[in-house]
Amino acid sequence: MKLLIFILVTLGFIRPxxxxxxxxxxxxxxxxxxxxxxxxxxFKQGVETATNKDIIVRIFxxxxxxxxxxxxxxxxxxxxxxxxxxxGRLAIYQNEMGILGAPYLASGLAEVKKIVTSTVFxxxxxxxxxxxxxxxxxxxxxxxxxxxLTHKEINHPDDLIGVRIRTIGAPVWLETIRALGATxxxxxxxxxxxxxxxxxxxxxxxxxxxxWGSRLYEVITYITKTAHINLISGLVGSATWFDKxxxxxxxxxxxxxxxxxxxxxxSTLIY
Length: 271
Prior knowledge:
By secondary structure, the protein is an alpha/beta fold. It has 11 helices and 8 strands.
């Protein structure tokens, strides 16, 4: 796999991120107006303050350095990167992680929190690190409930037949949209606005902060509050990078990731 990443970087399909072990580049597909960004700023400030800037954190929004999947592969190859990502994408490497994106798995933040702080989840995270080289720094970044965003009014499941809905290209997400009656259409988050505007797709599904942050309300007509998925994400980086840190710095990074993950939760409630 590392050889494959090297080849892709050489050919220009993946852009590498350079820096030493004391530098961490955090990437998200979200915009700086999303509440999650405030959490990432808190993470940066917390880590740099606690380590006296022995660890510098740089933040990149809007998938500036590549898609979430690209960054995960860079992390697996040992790059000093981390990405805010959902369990569905991680299911490729650790199948059980896909459960976190299952429809109607939990009702609200309190129930979601029980899952991602459980001993069962911690065992999955340990296996993800050992088998795939991906380190979960924290998985308490709750973004809210996902709803349908469409050009047409949706009152009944039959109204979704033949409707092309953008979703994340992970099995559990694809099957969820298919079960709702629509046609799942994987697409990068940064492409959703233009795809809706040009009617390449008929709709999408997102949590309110994501809809607001990416201004999707400008290119849709209806929001159907299905709350079909509680979107919980994690800050996931390279196990190789993390293992090179001192024990003290490892504790700082994971503690600050958890504290920062708590911050956006209340922000999502204002939308």
